[in-house]
Fold these 2 entries.
Entry 1:
Amino acid sequence: MDVQLSFFPELEGTRLATRHAGNPEHNRVQGADAIVHDWYRFILAYPPHLVRTYLERFAVMPDHTVLDPFSGTGTTIVECKKRSISGIGSDANPIAVLASRTKSDWIANPDSLRLRASRIAERAGETDQSILRTLTPDAEALVSRGAISPLPLHKTLNLLDAIREEPNTPPHLLLALAKALVSSISNLWFAPGVTVGPAKADAPVIESWLNNVNTIAADLELMQPNTVTTTVHHADARTLCDVLTPGSIDAVITSPPYPNESDYSRATRLESVLLGYLNNRLDAQTLKQTLLCSSSRNVYQGDTDDAWVAGNDRVQRIASEIEQKRQDLGKTDGFSRLYARAVKLYFGGMRRHLRSLKPALKDGASLAYVVGDQASFLQVHIHTGEILAEIAESEGYTIAGVDLFRTRQATKTGKQMREEVVLLRWTP
C-alpha cells in the first residue's frame, strides 16, 4: 500500500501542522456556518468547512450527487444543499434521520412555524403541574439516572403532547425540542462523552423550545428556496446496496464512527426516548445491531462482521495485542473481554460498508472518510486511517492520499491523537 500523507492545505503553518498540541477549534462550527447546521448537532460532528474543502477538491458541481452514508445530523447534505448540490444521506439512528431530513427541508413557512409554536406554547403552559408525569418504567430504564429532573421532565412531556396535537406537525418543531432537551432542559453534559451533571430543580422548557423554533424560522427566511433533491434513508451503512441506485453517486464525504469504545446511541438516548423512537430495551438493542460496532457495548452473540477481516494480519495483530494485555493485567470484566472482538467487528463492518457501496459509485467517484486514531484503555494504538485505507485497497479502491485534519488530546494519557481524512477513488 502506497499512501501519500498530506496536511489539510489551508491549515499549513498552524498549530494543526505542528502536531504539538490539540486543536479542537478546527472541529467547531464557524460564524455564518451555524445557519441551519446548528438546529441540532452531535457534539462530535465534523464541521461544515471540512465538507466545503472536499466539495472543492473533488470539483463537485450542481449536477453531481454526494452521499454521506453515516449522515448523523446532516452536515454533508446540508452543506451540499446550500450549494445547490444534490445530497443523499443514510443513518441507522432514527433521531439522526429526523435531524438530517428536517435540516434539509426548507419548504416550511417561517411565519406559520412561529404561529403554531405560539399556539402550542399556550396550550402546554395551561397544563396541570400538581401531579408530575413520568416515563414508563421501560422507557425510564433506558435513560441515565438523573439525566433529567422531575419537573423539567413533566413540562417536556406536556409540551410534547401539545406539539403532537397540532395538525400535520412540522418536524422542525420536534427537532427544536430535541435540541432544547440536550442544550438546556436536561442535566446532561457532553465533554465529549455523555455524562450527567448537577440536577436542575427546574428548567425553562417552553422558553428554550420557542427560542429554537424562532432560530429555525429566522434561518429559513435566509435560505433561498431551491429544487435540489435531498434524500435521507433510514438504513444500515453496511447494506447500502439495498437503498442506493446503481451508478448514482459522484462523491462521498462522511465520518463513520471510530473504534473508540463510545456507544454512539447513548449520545442521543434521552431525546430518542422522549420523542418515542426508543420505548424499551429491545428497541435499543435493535438499534445497536444496525450500527457499525465501535464499542464492546455493541457486541452481540450473532455478530459476524469480524469474519470479514479474518485474513487481515494487521487487524488480527491489534486484536491479539489487546487480548494479551488484558490477560497480563488479569482483567476479566465483560468490557475488557469483548474489546478485542469489538475492534475486529469495527473493521469488518467497514469492509462490508465499502463493498456494499461499490455498485452505487460512478466510475471515477471520489471519497473522503474522516476517522481518528485510537489508543484503547489498554493503550494499544489503533491507526484507524491507515487500516481503513488498507481495507479499501483490498476492496479495489485506489488510495488518493491521507490528509491530517487535526490532532486531539487523549483524555487518559494526554497524547496527541491524529484525526485524518482518508481519500479514495473508485475506478472499476
Note: The chain has two domains: 5-106+225-260+348-426, 110-222.
Entry 2:
Amino acid sequence: MEVQGLCAGYAGRSILKNVDFKVGPEDFVAIIGPSGAGKSTLIRCINRLVEPSAGTIRFMGRDVVGLSQSELRETRRHIGMIFQEFNLIERMSVIDNVLTGRLGYTGTLRSLFRAFKHENVRHALTLLERVGLTEHVDKRADQLSGGQRQRVGIARALIQNPKLMLVDEPTSSLDPKIAREVMRLITEISHELGIPVLCNIHDVQLATEFCSRIIGLQDGVKKFEGTPASLDKSALDEIYAMEVL
C-alpha cells in the first residue's frame, strides 16, 4: 500500500496534512503521536471510514479514494480491522462474532440467519484456537475479559483473509501485561500469515518493541519515519513537542 499527499478533516478543521508513506508486504508499521495528532483519522482513511479530502491511497493496484461504493465494499473485504473498543456484538456468541467478519462475502439472507458455510465455521474455530479462546467459543461476548474480547476482534479480522490489517489503538483499554500479550499475538500472526499491518498505538514502548517501522505524527503532519532503533530522544521531542504533560 502507498499513501501520497493524504489530507482529511472535520467541520472545516484540517486533521491530516499531506501525509506520505508506504506499507510493504512484510511491514508492521506503528503510528505514534500525541492525542489529537490524527492517528485514528489516518487509519480510518485507509478503508474510507473517514473520507479523505485529498491525496491517493494505492492498494491492490487501485486508488481507494476514487472507488465507487460497490468497489469500496469489494476492497474492504481485503482489509481487516481491529478496533480500540473491540466493536463486538455483546449478546452474540464468540464464534458468531468471529463469523461476522465474513459478512462482506455472505448474502443478506445467509447473514441474517447466520447460515455460514461449513468451511467458514471450521476456519473460525481454527482461528479461535490460535488466539487461545477454544474454551470460550459458545460464550457471549459480554462474558469475556478485555483481553479475551480483543482476541475475538483479532480472529474476526483474520477470518476475512485480509491482505492488509488496520489496528486502531488495540491496547488502550487493557492493562500493561495483557496489552503486551495482545501486541505479541498480533505481531506473531501477521508474520505467520504474511499480512502487513498499520497500527495506531499510543504506547511508544510497545511500538518500538513490536513494530518494524514507526511513523510519528504531530498535528496531522508526519514528523518522523524510520526504524525503532532510529527513534531517538530528539525525534520523540519533535513528535510530542505540543503535548501538555
Note: The mean pLDDT is 92.
